[in-house]
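About this split. The held-out portion is used to measure sequence recovery: a designer receives only the structure tokens and must propose an amino acid at every position. Recovery is the fraction of positions where the proposal matches the reference. Here is one held-out target exactly as it appears in the evaluation file.
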């Protein structure tokens, strides 16, 4: 078994509607998110890989371009309370059906914080 990953980023605004009054995350603010998609599989003996990086890019691009990049995440169905935990689970639900071998992903809200979700737990 081999593990590989491909990383993408997107910019988005959000606010957390359920935090206590006065909490800084209750105000509209933005992040440059980094999403690391992590795949596990056995390489095909002829091809030498189990998934093509170009296929990963093709699956990610419509979600990035048409749904999440430069948006307010709270406006997206399923992300009304867009914590990193909710976002990670939502991304798995969007991507797992079109990306074979996707095992888990990490969403980095900053350079020092991330959340990981697994396909086996999110679906």
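Reference sequence for scoring:
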């Amino acid at each position: 078994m081999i593990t590989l990953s491909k990383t993408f980023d997107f910019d988005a605004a959000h606010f957390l509607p359920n935090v206590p009054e006065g909490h800084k995350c209750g105000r509209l603010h933005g992040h440059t998110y980094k999403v690391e998609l992590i795949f596990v599989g056995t390489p095909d003996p002829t091809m030498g890989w189990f998934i093509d990086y170009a296929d990963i890019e093709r699956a990610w691009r419509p979600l990035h371009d048409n749904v999440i990049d430069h948006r307010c995440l709270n406006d997206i169905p399923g992300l009304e309370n867009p914590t990193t935990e909710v976002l990670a689970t939502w991304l798995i639900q969007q991507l797992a059906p079109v990306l074979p071998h996707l095992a888990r992903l990490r969403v980095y809200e900053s350079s020092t914080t991330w959340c990981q979700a697994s396909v086996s737990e999110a679906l």
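Annotator remark: The longest strand covers residues 2-14.
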